[in-house]
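Predict the 3D structure for this chain.
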Amino acid sequence: MGSPRITGLSWGRLETERGAFKDAKLYPGGAREWDWNETGTRHDPGIQPADVAELLERGAEVVVLGRGFYGRLGVCEETLRLLRERGVEVYAERTEEAVRRYNGLAPERRAGALIHSTC
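Done. Predicted structure below.
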């Protein structure tokens, strides 16, 4: 069960093999809208452990965190610690680089990603 490829990216829109989203959660076998309200995520302090939990539950062995086009979305230290403690390889990068990295990993690995398509 592969991770869906990202097929297009523009400000406020991420296109994947599984549909189009503003912000997306991608994981082995699927993708869905990443609704920040589910976990109370904000730009600061940023991506929380609860945001990556679904990726881990769905078997991601490498996780790419897209921090926005300008890198304004933070990543909580607890999130990075959780991923590393679980033995998950993690990358936190600006969105364009995150998309390139994820698309490079997805065909070969059980990849997961959180991609923020604005700021």
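The beta strands are 6-10, 13-16, 19-21, 23-27, 30-33, 62-66, 89-93, 111-116.
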